[in-house]
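F.,

This is the one I mentioned.
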């Protein structure tokens, strides 16, 4: 994918961000993967494999898989290979291909496909779903997990957080993404010709009954929001004080016994 056609990525590609992706994947592993079953899939196509954060979980949970990860950013591929080597996964289990997911050119077909936190960054996500379809065998299983950012809520509501979140999401729309794309997964898959589409809502509703998990998720979400700060700063959309206030407010909520964290994402399962 040429730099001219590469969409902007709100989180950036700094080393700190690459590590955050791995941490994020582990924090949110159970709410996602407890509802994914690739036990009957042998060859899996992962679209937007990034630094291999999800790939690592897939191979740990389904060690029989052979995964091909497609990624358009070469820096992410280099980090993914490094992460796979550290995790002990060899080339017979996983390989990464540098391609544009909207214009795939693969040399084989797969019996499953996996997409997680990717379509939100793509201006026309239906193009990805159509592009990958010829490389999926009849009956192939597709699993997609995507954001639904308008569901984010905290109690108490703190303007420093919600104002920043509004700017964050508006910027993602401005650069061609869709922070609510999860809500559209059913229609996107249907328009792309997939069948037997099922949707579920997953996520977090954490309060005083879950103090440790709530603390972990507030930290995770603070880091997620902060990952967009360099881009927002460079565009003049926020200033250093707004970032500092957002971080402080998230820390405040994390330590508050009666605070609440709520967020939903959408998972889709479909077949070719």
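My design for it:
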């Amino acid at each position: 994918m040429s730099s001219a056609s590469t969409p902007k990525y709100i989180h950036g590609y700094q080393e700190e961000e690459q590590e955050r992706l791995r941490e994020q994947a582990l924090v949110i592993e159970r709410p996602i993967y407890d509802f994914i079953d690739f036990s009957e899939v042998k060859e899996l196509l992962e679209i937007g494999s990034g630094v291999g954060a999800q790939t690592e979980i897939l191979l740990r949970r389904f060690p029989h898989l052979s995964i091909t990860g497609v990624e358009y950013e070469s820096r992410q591929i280099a980090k993914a290979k490094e992460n796979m080597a550290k995790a002990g996964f060899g080339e017979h289990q996983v390989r990464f291909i540098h391609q544009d997911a909207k214009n795939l050119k693969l040399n084989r077909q797969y019996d499953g496909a996996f997409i997680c936190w990717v379509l939100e960054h793509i201006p026309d996500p239906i193009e990805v779903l159509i592009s990958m379809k010829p490389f999926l065998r009849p009956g192939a299983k597709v699993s997609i997990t995507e954001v639904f950012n308008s569901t984010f809520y905290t109690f108490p509501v703190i303007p420093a957080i919600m104002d920043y979140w509004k700017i964050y999401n508006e910027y993602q729309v401005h650069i061609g993404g869709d922070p609510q794309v999860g809500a559209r997964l059913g229609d996107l898959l249907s328009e792309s010709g997939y069948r037997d589409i099922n949707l579920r809502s997953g996520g977090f509703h954490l309060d005083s009954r879950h103090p440790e998990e709530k603390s972990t998720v507030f930290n995770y979400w603070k880091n997620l929001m902060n990952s967009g700060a360099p881009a927002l700063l460079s565009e003049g959309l926020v200033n250093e004080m707004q970032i500092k206030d957002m971080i402080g407010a998230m820390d405040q909520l994390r330590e508050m016994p009666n605070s609440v964290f709520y967020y939903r994402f959408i998972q889709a399962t479909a077949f070719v």
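The chain has a mean pLDDT of 92.

Talk soon.
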